[in-house]
Amino acid sequence: MDDQIGFATEEQRNLQQAGEKLAPDEFTEEASGFSDCKSFDVDDILDLAGGAKDAIERHRSKYQILDETNANIRNSGPGKEEADAEAKALSSLFWDLLYWRDVQKTACVFGATLSLLISLSLLSVISVCSYIALALLSVTICFRIYSGFAAAVQKAENMHPFKLYLEQEETLPADILHRHRDVLLKHINASINRLKHLFLVEDLLDSLKFAVVLWVLTYVGSVFNGLTVLIIGDVAAFTCPVFYEKHKVQIDHYYELVKSYIQDVMKKIQAKIHGLKIKIE
Asked: pTM, whole model, 2 decimals?
């Protein structure tokens, strides 16, 4: 009997300590009633243990809800808002370039990309990169010599013209790398799943469309090489949006006509394919 009382007293002390750490308000009432008892039996100990278990479970569920709430706040916090704002700003800048909102910027970008593609079509990649780096180095060297000569003539202090840029430490933020890495992985995984869908013929109609596109590309490849296609695409990217903006009504009208005709043809082909499947079955 003394052993049982000693065991019950030790169990009471442990449960009271757990109640004070985990759920003071919920556990104290149950433990206080038990502390006044002089004699203990097995049923009292089991009741107290059950109450402590319920209090611990409520405590865990409460903190689990708090952790989930904090995680949601972190996921929808300022970092995500900044990323969305940055993506919207880049998208807006891209469309402003294509629609010639700022003529000087668009002309510079269009001229630089077109010159680069034409140079790559005439020369090797090594030669083009070397010529670009050599031209940039020639400009900086000439400006450095000119600034030193002007300072000597004016008898002024010879300041390095690029001192401001040399003192700046250029580092790429890690969060930008992680963000773009996640976006890149997302697109890569989506592309892999799409190619698997097409090549493994999950949908026969989609695979037939893809086969038609590849067949057309074989004729395009026999007439143009890759760089020529890129040059045509660059010119089209900076001319078609402006042309569409000026003649939007007419283009939309003819586009709907062509789209409806293609949809009718595809419906007929799909109906024949389904009929063929039924016959085979």
From this structure: 0.56
